[in-house]
């Protein structure tokens, strides 16, 4: 019979080797031998429960007898075996009680045991059975909890250290109260025998069971909290292990990029983890195999300006086919603060992207988020991590390169960045490339071009009127371009409306162009910082920091340009004074040129007293320890500024 049962559990398959069949049969026999042994033990405990509880007796003494009998078993086995034994008693009782109305044998057993009629006494017995069920459930909850502690992976958590050591100290007490609860339940069942014709009063018994259930529930809540702490500790160790595995993975040479992509995005094969931004279909990671991949990593505050510029560059790259890469958006979100509003923001951003994005932000493992933050230095601002077709890191943040040179920066390596910088000089083309071709057309035509910024309307009106009047009287071509101020989108929108009305000069009619102008300047600075350049040894970096410090002032500023390389710049009051003093330096124009003559005069009238501020976003990384003033060369003092600009 045992062998026949074994073949039910382990059905033979075709071409099974004799030795394999023998091993399977032996395993099945061992399992049934174990079940037979457990059945014997459960029956013994069931008998002990029935005997000890049938005459009332002391619950504590009965509990200790059972614990003594089970002394060779671990705590989780003690409670499981005792609960199983009670299940036999409880099951037999209910089988007889519920079937006595329709089954002759059950009716005879109920009569012999003098069990009360459950249907007739349902009202009076309900409080008693409700309390009994609650206590059984509480005991079962604690038992499951104790078993769960036993099944925790020992390689990630030790019994010798908290929180497991704290839980281990409470498990014997919890086991005692589980077994004592079972004794109380068994006593309650036993007390019903012989009460067929007696009046049933259950208020006292129900109260005692309820009090016990309350105590066991308290134990369960405590154990559940400790279990949650254990899982948290296990998760932390697993995340650290996965984090170090990710580090090792990036240090290893691979045939293609799939191991890296699976480790970063989604390792399983059960669902396609990406959404194609063009078709909006779910796709697998295979679409990234052996391709250059840009990982756009951001929170849910990714700006529309960033998406718009990246959209243009991405579509341009795909249409040309020369610099083919794929892009994947990986949103970094906090599960603790996730709500419907954040979900809608995620879906809105995802719908506005033509490139790939993860279908669900929570498929990204915590270890990957840790890697992104600690190794790739992501904090708040978006970064664009470039990986080559083998999954090797090309750039920790290619966003600076792509803002400055667009797709010309492909494949976004450090060598490519250095090569592009070698071709650059400080020029008008570097300042406005990719923003406004009209300005570059003026440059080709040999016109004098003035870029100016700030948001002091009084200065802007005076400065533009003075400059245009001077151009008319001096009979030279002057074009003026308002480039606004950084990090002030709402205020710039109002400035654009003002320029539309008052027609001060030519201006960029959208906030995106203004944002991109300043984003490129910041990118130039950070690119130079990453290369280890300083204002002392790099002309472009010095000029970029000067313009950024102009933007940090309260007044306006101006840069005058002519041709590819003639440039002169000054803060607002100095620029205005130099135009008003045109007669003092106009005699040098014929010999030196208009812009160089202006530049020399600006140096002459520049006051030694100045107060320059350079405001750098602290969330981008790479903030230099030492910054010198671009105007006088002295080291600038460092202050911390916390800003919240709700416009």
UniProtKB/TrEMBL annotation:
Sieve element occlusion C-terminal domain residues: 416-645
Parts forming coiled coils: none
Domain of life of the organism encoding this protein: Eukaryota
Domain Sieve element occlusion N-terminal span(s) in chain numbering: 15-254
Pfam family, one: SEO_C
Biological processes per GO annotation: phloem development
PANTHER family: PROTEIN SIEVE ELEMENT OCCLUSION B-LIKE
Protein name: Protein SIEVE ELEMENT OCCLUSION B-like isoform X2
Organism field: Cicer arietinum
